[in-house]
Amino acid sequence: MALISMDHVNKIYPNSTRPALADIDLHIDRGDFVFLVGASGSGKTSLLRLLLREEEATGGDIRVGGYDLRRMAGKQVPQYRRSIGFVFQDYKLLPNKTVWENVAFALEVIGTSRSAVRSLVPKVLKTVGLEGKEKKKPNELSGGEQQRVTIARAYVNHPQILLADEPTGNLDPTTSLGIMEVLDAINRTGTTVVMATHNEEIVNSMRKRVVELHAGHIVRDQAAGVYDSALYFPDGQVAANAHEAISGEATSAGTSVGRHSVSAEQLGKLERVDRARIVVDQVDEALRSGAPDEGIARLAQSVHAGKTGRYGEAFAPLEETLTWGTGLSLEDMEAKEADDDGQDAAPDEAVAAAGAEAAVTTGDSEGDTSDETQIPDSDASVTGTPSRDEAEPDAQSAEAARTASIPRPPADPTQAMPPAPPKPPTRPGPPRPPASQPSTSAQE
Ligand SMILES: Nc1ncnc2c1ncn2[C@@H]1O[C@H](COP(=O)(O)OP(=O)(O)OP(=O)(O)O)[C@@H](O)[C@H]1O
């Protein structure tokens, strides 16, 4: 049975004649990742608010997990909502609490012991890349960092379902990539994710299920879908893209989280806090293990089209894309290579002039430039996209240290993404899927 079932659901707001949602039939299985797309006012937020039981349907049935939302007593609602993680734009962080306190609060309201809070909060903050920011208040954080706190807060309890309304709204593409990495990793632990978005690049890269709303109706429900609807936005290119996406190799949404997978039965027997701890570890591992995830790799490639990774020549193994977005533009790389060549040339001249001592210098210089942790900040800060190095020196150095500690696999040409083509001036089609990689359905 589907985890989320909506049958013939209508929603008409008071003082409104036109339904915001009309005859919605939607069934979402455990572990699914669903994008809700559609023009402004099409009903995406309304649908999410019905699922959160923030609004009540005017007609139809909504069942989420074991709950029948239409028959739920008011006093049950808070408990129900605690089983759902949500990242909504108007659910702001508590402004007078620090990052740590905001996340801890989500645990405290469900009665988690102080010692469990003390052990869980740093883990979840590390997972979302916020180490070193624990004592900051929300107004001292960038938009992307605030969004990461919101996500940390939303999943620290291991919700079965995570609802996200435009979680990348107002964020630059590279920061959005970081947010998507976390949401995707959460999904790979078995959490069902339903995300409303206007972000075409994310939807086209991730190739998850796409449900499109139009004037309150579901007009498309597409597995491994794309952003555009050929039906409602007829355009030859869009139709071709959709056709390519549908006929292309659809990939499974989930991959197992590997070594630390825990069966649903095992999870069920554990205390809530222990479950949360395991899931936080799973998300952490999913983010750091480099387990192949084509959607995120494609998104990283798309976001960095025309750029090379911070640590490598082109986006290839997944762990090298986990940079919270910083990339070097091709121009920067060329300039850097020219610089390196210049450094190479100078000692050559010196060799001619002064003998073998300079040859040693040449070798050292090359060694330095190939060391991923040695790229000076100034290189990354001239990327042409908003640099996180300027805004988040702490996070960047933590990231560099973390990445440096990840053992890097030997170069494997079968896993490498091809170098990103330059972005076409017109609307890009969905990138072709890379060679299929092993994946299994997420289990909970
Ligand atoms: N609280 C409300 N009271 C009355 N009408 C509302 C309310 N909330 C939403 N609506 C209306 O319901 C329709 C759907 O709105 P909704 O916010 O769900 O759309 P959306 O697809 O999420 O839009 P956007 O992409 O701009 O966020 C719109 O016509 C909107 O004006």
UniProtKB/TrEMBL annotation:
Bias (Low complexity): 348-363
- State the family it belongs to: Belongs to the ABC transporter superfamily.
For this protein, the record's PROSITE patterns field holds: ABC_TRANSPORTER_1, ABC_TRANSPORTER_2
Query: Where is composition skewed (Acidic residues) in this entry?
Result: 336-347
List the GO terms this entry assigns under cellular component, sorted alphabetically.
Answer: plasma membrane
Please name the PANTHER family in this protein's record: CELL DIVISION ATP-BINDING PROTEIN FTSE, IMPORT ATP-BINDING PROTEIN
Q: Which residues form a coiled coil?
A: none
Regions of biased composition (Pro residues) lie at 407-436
Protein purpose: Part of the ABC transporter FtsEX involved in cellular division. Has ATPase activity.
The organism named in the record is Bifidobacterium cuniculi
- Give the span(s) annotated as Disordered: 336-444
Classification of source organism = Bacteria, Bacillati, Actinomycetota, Actinomycetes, Bifidobacteriales
Q: Which SUPFAM superfamilies does its entry note?
A: P-loop containing nucleoside triphosphate hydrolases (SSF52540)
Protein name from the UniProt record: Cell division ATP-binding protein FtsE
Q: How does it assemble?
A: Homodimer. Forms a membrane-associated complex with FtsX.
Main subcellular location: membrane
> Which InterPro entries does the protein's record reference?
AAA+_ATPase, ABC_transporter-like_ATP-bd, ABC_transporter-like_CS, ABC_transpr_LolD-like, Cell_div_FtsE, P-loop_NTPase
**Which residues are in the ABC transporter domain?**
4-240
Q: Which GO terms describe its molecular function?
A: ATP binding; ATP hydrolysis activity; transmembrane transporter activity
Q: Which Pfam families does this one have?
A: ABC_tran
Q: Which UniProt keywords apply?
A: ATP-binding, Cell cycle, Cell division, Cell membrane, Hydrolase, Membrane, Nucleotide-binding
